């Protein structure tokens, strides 16, 4: 991790790693936590393989869904790691995503209390990192990670 370019988040989730993995890889489960509530998510494409599409939509009212994420998976290591970027869209075309281009690495490791869940979001330059942080990286990614934990720990 490069502190000038990257943002990170870490949390122990009190659920088995396989449960957390399923929450990431099953579209109906991913929709339950991937965007901060009360907004809702729809998964359009979740092709979990290197080069596969990761496309989601967002709704604030539950009726109209607008584009949220159009990304491409770079690496998928079952039960261990998911890497995706929105700098390349789901059709492998270079993208200029709003609000910021990024590559996210999600790492899952066993922990005595469940799963050691880590996120590193890489940016192309310090300005992009600062912009993402200012927009609320910690609140946004932290909120959805808390939602993931609540779902997998059986609190929701």
Number of strands: 7
Mean pLDDT: 96
The arrangement of helices and strands along the chain is EHHEEEEEEHH
- Describe the sheet with the most strands: 7 strands, antiparallel
SS field, number of helical segments? 4
Shape summary: globular
Structural class: alpha+beta
**Radius of gyration over all CA atoms, rounded:** 15 Å
Beta-sheet strand percentage?
A: 35-45%
For the termini, the CA-CA separation is 33 Å
Explain the layout of strands and helices:
Blueprint: E1 6-13, H1 17-25, H2 27-30, E2 40-46, E3 53-59, E4 66-77, E5 81-85, E6 103-111, E7 114-122, H3 126-135, H4 137-152
Please characterize this protein's 3D structure.
With about 160 residues, this protein is an alpha+beta fold. About 25% of the residues lie in helices and about 35% in strands. The chain is globular and about 40 Å long.
Describe this structure in a few short sentences.
The chain is α+β, with helices and mostly antiparallel strands and 156 residues long.
Comma- or semicolon-separated keywords:
seven-stranded antiparallel sheet, single chain, globular, alpha+beta, 156 residues
């Amino acid at each position: 991790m490069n502190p000038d370019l990257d943002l990170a988040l870490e949390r122990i989730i009190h659920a088995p790693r396989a449960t957390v993995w399923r929450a990431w890889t099953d579209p109906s489960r991913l929709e339950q936590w991937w965007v901060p509530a009360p907004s809702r998510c729809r998964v359009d494409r979740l092709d979990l393989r290197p080069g596969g599409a990761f496309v989601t939509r967002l709704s604030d009212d539950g009726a109209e869904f607008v584009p949220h994420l159009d990304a491409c998976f770079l690496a998928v290591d079952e039960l261990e790691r998911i890497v995706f970027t929105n700098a390349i869209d789901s059709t492998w075309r270079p993208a200029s995503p709003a609000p910021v281009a990024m590559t996210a690495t999600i790492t899952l490791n066993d922990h005595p209390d469940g799963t050691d869940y880590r996120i590193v979001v890489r940016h192309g330059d310090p300005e992009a990192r600062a912009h993402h942080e200012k927009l609320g990286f910690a609140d946004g990614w932290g909120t959805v990670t808390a939602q993931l934990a609540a779902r997998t720990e059986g609190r929701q």
